[in-house]
Amino acid sequence: MTPRRIARYLLNRTSGMMSFDTAVIIAKQLLAAQGMGAGGDIATSGEFGVLKLVAASEPLLFDVGGHVGTYTQEFLKVFPRGRSLIFEPSASHLVHLRQNLAANPAVTIYPVGLSDKAAELPLYKDKDISGLASLSQRRLDYMNIKLEVVETVTVRTLDSVVEETGTTAIDLLKMDVEGHELAVLKGGNKTFERGIVKLVQFEFGGCNLDTHTTLQDFYYFFKTYNFAIGLVQPSGRIQILEKYDEFYEQYRTANFVAAPRHVLAGH
């Protein structure tokens, strides 16, 4: 039976007996098993599967939203001859980041964020060290969370950093900037035009509701540069999204990758 016929069969058998709440729970579990809603924890999200797509033996990582350095640490375990440029604008995060990685010669720490233009902007957090730090004051009252800790941070563009450093290849551009990933990409248009970025990993979820960005925005951005988009599954497998579908607008944290289609297909 085809997937569509299987789904129709199950619906016919269960729809009359299933409550709305039960249907929502099952739908969430099914989506999480595919990766939509499973993107919050690096250990269980399948993110390590993305590293198998990195072709270079001495790759360069741009870790945008580096927080306290956990992702870079894991990246360098897989690629001991790799290098990482970490971008983290929060002063309190930088204290821990430098303690963790400043002594590593393979790591360069930039005390700035990346966006679509150079600016001084407010960064909102719920506490000094926070995985929710965002350039948007998100509405999280329904989770009993308020982003009331505010600091002013500096942001610049990916294009300016690439020009300043003379970077000719970014083997992995990893972004975790709480809804501002699209702004980071737009600040790197020239970099993408030159083919410098080989592979992108980004989060998409509830943060994008607050920044009013959609997966469709990412789809058309990457289409401009002949990149395909893939959903990262908890197993580490990459599910290529062959074409855009409104159903993919699931605002539950998920990890996606973007690269030329043959790169994703070779996983």
Question: Please, could you describe this protein's structure?
Answer:
This protein is an alpha/beta fold and 267 residues long. The chain has a domain at 59-225 and 242-249: 3-Layer(aba) Sandwich (Rossmann fold), CATH 3.40.50. The chain has helices at residues 3-14, 20-34, 70-78, 91-101, 158-165, 181-186, 189-193, 207-211, 215-224, 261-265, and strands at 60-64, 83-87, 107-110, 113-115, 119-125, 149-157, 172-175, 200-204, 228-232, 238-240, 254-259. It has an 8-stranded mixed beta sheet with strand order 3-2-1-7-8-11-9-10. A 3-stranded mixed beta sheet has the order 4-6-5. Helix 3 links the parallel strand 1 and strand 2. The longest helix has 15 residues, at 20-34. The protein is globular, with a radius of gyration of 19 Å. The two termini are 27 Å apart.
Could you write a compact summary of the structure shown?
With about 270 residues, the protein is of the alpha/beta class. The protein is built from ten helices and eleven strands. It is about 30% helix and about 20% strand.
The structural class is: alpha/beta
Q: How much beta, percentage-wise?
A: 15-25%
What is the H/E string?
A: HHEHEHEEEEHEHHEHHEEEH
Average pLDDT works out at 91
Contiguous uncertain segments of 5+ residues:
none
Number of helices: 10
The CATH first-level class of the domain at 59-225 and 242-249 comes to Alpha Beta
Strand order of the largest sheet: 3-2-1-7-8-11-9-10
**Could you describe the largest sheet, including whether it forms a barrel?**
8 strands, mixed
CATH topological fold name of the domain at 59-225 and 242-249:
Rossmann fold
Number of strands: 11
